[in-house]
């Protein structure tokens, strides 16, 4: 009970949650799976930011520079990795999670398989839905973003980042799954490290990408349920790489 | 051998095929899977056609009218379902396959699981890659289309249609799978009937959609390998539908 109070915060509407939870359970038909209702946040970061270069078109197909470390004098310190706000905070990687929870009020949920239920998908871009996910001894940041890369054509981008180093991130595979209306869409990839910029990942389009019509097909009453699973990576076959 | 000759036609370049086949096998690591190299066709149909309404923006999110049957006086006759050309042919559903093979030279491949290897993904839109797939006693039409819904931003759309009625189509599920560079993307859905217009399905975005950057991530040397599997649908749980 304490866990749920922590997870859903003070604004929790229990009746709404019950209803959404019931719907999400029906979508995934997996009794016992944790469902986290995630409310949207209108992004306040789309102005001159440290990642402004990442906002350029993906069509340039060059990894935008995103020098998180340029302003960091102590190499052991990392800047705030919150995708929502430009924040001057910097600290050790180990305390990023508590900074995100305490300062940016990003909820954290535990379990190997969870359902992320993003509400109010109709809200205008730019909008973010964010939670942290604690699993296999690590914390991950799940970001769903509605953004207009092409003016007037909002798209949804979903990705998972490890709150850890790129080397640690290589040990995991994450899966995002949508399942509704006799359609199923699955995306599996290695998570990126939060030391890389989430804006770059989305600008690159190296994530689950949904156009508005697909998002509508997978949504139920304005909410999108995304099944999330994280596993440790199998040893990669060298043949698979090429 | 006769089968291969039929399938790949007179323009088959055996050396090229060997090479591509080897690459596709490595991508899917599934020895024994049939690989069909599919060359692109620049679409000649983007002019006033019977499906012109389907070219309107998907953002209107209304199923575009696509009245295949309006000009058909005998209700048992269907028009040509070739997505490439405007063709005045009409005939019974049972002879659509032989019309597509003989008149439009669309190859047909047999097997429950095949790999569709689309070459020359860099070619400008509009371009189509098309084969027929014979499986479970029926024939399916696989269409991969490169199209610019938003000017200057080509996207790839892949879908599978049953050469049969919508009622027959409801009995099947098709899966398209991309797998490369430690990323995996799967799309599963019920095929549409060719009596519905392929242009509508693509305009609706109710198919596998890839932006250019994702297509590049999944491509190898300009070719995109799509794993295809068709199964008979399980009995749908009424709960899954809502």
UniProtKB/TrEMBL annotation, chains A, B:
Enzyme Commission numbers on file: 2.3.2.27
Pfam families per the UniProt record, alphabetical: Sina_TRAF, Sina_ZnF
User: Could you state one GO cellular component term attached to this entry?
Assistant: cytoplasm
Q: Which reaction does it catalyse?
A: S-ubiquitinyl-[E2 ubiquitin-conjugating enzyme]-L-cysteine + [acceptor protein]-L-lysine = [E2 ubiquitin-conjugating enzyme]-L-cysteine + N(6)-ubiquitinyl-[acceptor protein]-L-lysine
Alphabetically, the GO molecular function entries are: ubiquitin conjugating enzyme binding; ubiquitin protein ligase activity; zinc ion binding
Residues covered by the Seven-in-absentia protein TRAF-like domain: 134-228
Look up the record and give one Gene Ontology term from the biological process aspect: protein ubiquitination
Family per UniProt? Belongs to the SINA (Seven in absentia) family.
Q: What is known of its domains?
A: The RING-type zinc finger domain is essential for ubiquitin ligase activity.
Q: Briefly, what is this protein's role?
A: E3 ubiquitin-protein ligase that mediates ubiquitination and subsequent proteasomal degradation of target proteins. E3 ubiquitin ligases accept ubiquitin from an E2 ubiquitin-conjugating enzyme in the form of a thioester and then directly transfers the ubiquitin to targeted substrates.
The molecule here is called E3 ubiquitin-protein ligase
User: Which organism does this sequence originate in?
Assistant: Glaucidium brasilianum
């Amino acid at each position: 009970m304490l866990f749920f109070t922590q997870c859903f915060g003070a604004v929790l509407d229990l009746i709404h949650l019950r209803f959404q939870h019931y719907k999400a359970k029906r979508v995934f038909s997996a009794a016992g799976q944790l469902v986290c209702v995630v409310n949207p946040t209108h992004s306040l970061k789309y102005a001159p930011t440290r990642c402004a270069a990442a906002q350029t078109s993906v069509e340039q197909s060059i990894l935008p520079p995103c020098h998180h470390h340029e302003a960091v004098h102590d190499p052991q310190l990392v800047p705030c990795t919150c995708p929502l706000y430009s924040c001057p905070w910097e600290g050790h990687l180990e305390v990023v999670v508590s900074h995100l929870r305490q300062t940016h009020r990003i909820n954290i949920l535990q379990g190997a398989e969870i359902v992320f239920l993003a509400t109010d998908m109709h809200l205008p871009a730019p909008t973010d839905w964010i939670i942290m996910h604690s699993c296999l001894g690590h914390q991950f940041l799940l970001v769903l973003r509605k953004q207009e890369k092409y003016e007037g054509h909002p798209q949804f981008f979903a990705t998972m980042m490890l709150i850890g180093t790129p080397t640690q991130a290589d040990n995991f595979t994450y899966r995002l799954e949508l399942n509704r209306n006799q359609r199923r869409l699955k995306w599996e990839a290695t998570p990126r490290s939060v030391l890389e910029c989430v804006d770059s990942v989305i600008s690159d389009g190296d994530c689950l990408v949904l156009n508005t019509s697909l998002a509508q097909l997978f949504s139920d009453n304005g909410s999108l349920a995304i099944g999330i699973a994280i596993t440790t990576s199998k040893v990669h076959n060298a043949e698979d790489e090429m």
